[in-house]
Amino acid sequence: MGRVAKPALSAAGGTGEARPFPPDDGKSHRRAIPPCSGARSPRMMHGLPSLHMTTPSRGSLLDIEHLEDKQILDLLKLARRMDPRKPRSLLRGKRIILLFYEASTRTRSSFEVAAQSLGALTTLVQSSGSSIEKGESLLDTAYTLRAVGADAIVIRHPSAGAPHLMARHIEIPVINAGDGMHEHPSQALLDGFTILKHKKSFKGLRIAIIGDVYHSRVTRSNCHLLARFGAKITLCGPPELVPDLASTLAPGLAITRHVEGALRGADVVMLLRVQQERLAGRKIQLQEYIARYQMTAARLKLAKQDAIVMHPGPIIRGLELTSEVVDCPQSAIVDEVRNGVPMRMAILARAFGKN
Ligand code: NCD
To answer: Which residue has the higher pLDDT, 37 or 150?
Structure first.
């Protein structure tokens, strides 16, 4: 890779005349290519060293679970210094590819705005309309994007672990923008950032997470982040959406089936969408869910007076929450979306060692 044939013009001594293609006499002009012997790995095809990297590429953000406390706190601190209204050229000339195998509005657009606010160039690749649709493998797609000139890849993928696999095979930073039902680290960071704008610290905060915990990568990342800094988390929903096993996600998690119990004394009320596209045969009676768990203004009164309402989006008005709750003064839902930009600016800056 990187070997570029000399242009014919300079080889011809700069006469100003483009030299015609060499005659195809079947001899002298071609580089000798050794015959293929045995299987070649895609890394070889792309001229990359054949070793498998045992650690993820530097600057990657793959999950919250394996970040150190200091790394999380540094990212939160860095985000406070980022302001998309004051564009910077920290990442001027860097090419960031947004590789989305799943639908997204806020994550994708805020990564794009964040990258551009730092002076980077962005390209969006979606599974529909790309070679992925034709069956190209994840790693071949990664090598291809690298060859095109990507300096970092932001990836959302329906399979847990896809960004981790990619980060072990290419040497550029890989940012996880949501992998299956596993993690969504940038969302947890922006949620943490939002909470700290409203509350003094995570320590002792009572956080109620209500809804489809089972399918929520956001919840998994949030539990890893918030529990570690001393928040008291209660997960709430029916057993189909909040299995008992969910209490093992992080130390000190509690589970309740009663929304009133989760809300009493809560500082933060985090609501989750019922991810109907992932239910695959599970039966959820939506009317019953609404009756038992929908966040209404009356229910919200059980939480502390200064409690904030959060939701990673997309929100479905009339299902997991009423319009009245979405638009009430306690709602921090739009604030979360807004905070996604400085948080993702910080994540991208860190990816390139600019922190
Ligand atoms: C969520 C996701 O895709 O994980 N949204 C987000 O990125 N902010 C949650 C969802 O789809 O319900």
So the answer is: 150
pLDDT at 120 over 90: yes
Domain positions in the chain: 69-183+340-351, 186-276+283-336
> Spelled out in words, what is the top-level CATH class assigned to the domain 69-183+340-351?
alpha beta
Tell which wins on pLDDT, 76 or 32: 76
Query: Do 69-183+340-351 and 186-276+283-336 agree at the fold level?
Result: yes
Looking at ligand 1, which atom is closest to the CA of residue 103?
Answer: 3
C-alpha 197 to ligand 1 mean position (Å): 22
* 186-276+283-336 CATH choice from 3.40.50.2300, 3.30.430.20, 3.40.1190.20, 3.40.50.1370: 3.40.50.1370
Pocket of ligand 1 (CB under 6 A): 106-107, 178, 184, 187, 217-218, 273, 275, 312-313
- Within 13 Å and on the Cβ side, how many CA atoms surround 285? 5
pLDDT in tens, 179-218: 999 999 999 999 999 999 999 999 999 999 999 999 999 9
Which residue's CA is the nearest one to ligand 1's atom 12? 273
- Using an 8 Å Cβ cutoff, are 166 and 139 in contact? yes
- The answer, as to whether pTM is greater than 0.90, is no
Å from CA of 42 to ligand 1 middle: 32
Residue that the structure tokens 């979306």 belong to: 337
Please say if the pLDDT value at position 15 is more than 50: no
How many Å lie between the centroid of ligand 1 and the Cα of residue 312? 6
Band of the pLDDT at 55, cuts 50, 70, 90?
confident
Look up residue 67 and give its DSSP letter.
S
Q: Which amino acid is at 46?
A: H
Residue with tokens 């570690």: 228
HSE toward the beta carbon, residue 336, CA cutoff 13 A: 26
Our mutation pick for probing the ligand 1 site, out of 110, 175, 218, counting the most ligand atoms within 8 A of Cβ, is: 218
Q: Which amino acid is at 212?
A: D
List b or e across 220-230, with b for residues whose CB sees 16 or more CB atoms inside 10 angstroms.
bbbbbbbbbbe
